[in-house]
Amino acid sequence: MKEQMHREYxxxxxxxxxxxxxxxxxxxxVRRGHAPSQGRWSLPGGVVELGETLREAAQREIREECHIxxxxxxxxxxxxxxxxxxxxxxxxxxxxxxxxxxxxxxELRADSDIEAAQWADVSQLARYNLMPEQQxxxxxALGEL
Length: 145
Hints:
alpha+beta; Nucleoside Triphosphate Pyrophosphohydrolase; seven-stranded mixed β-sheet; 7 strands
């Protein structure tokens, strides 16, 4: 019997991946379809499933959300994403591993847990109102590619 994972008010942190996918001078961005950050532009990613490696999770999430295939280039960083409710209780707690990937194949289209997906020119990122830590990750990745 599969144990039910509670993303909201979890019993423990949830491990996830955040993927910086590059194609030419563009990066893949998605508009979130669910809380937290619903409706906000973000880096794609999701939760690592039991028995799955970080790289496999990153490739699966991109395939499910965006219908493209990627190659993982490197692990960039590990981030803590903790959201508290008005009473100070932990409502969401993710430990995200940020990976850098490169586009390989497929036609980009939104599916699964997202409202939209698009290739964003890295010089135009201000228009997407990304979270500051995501902007910093993108700049760091660009400097290391």
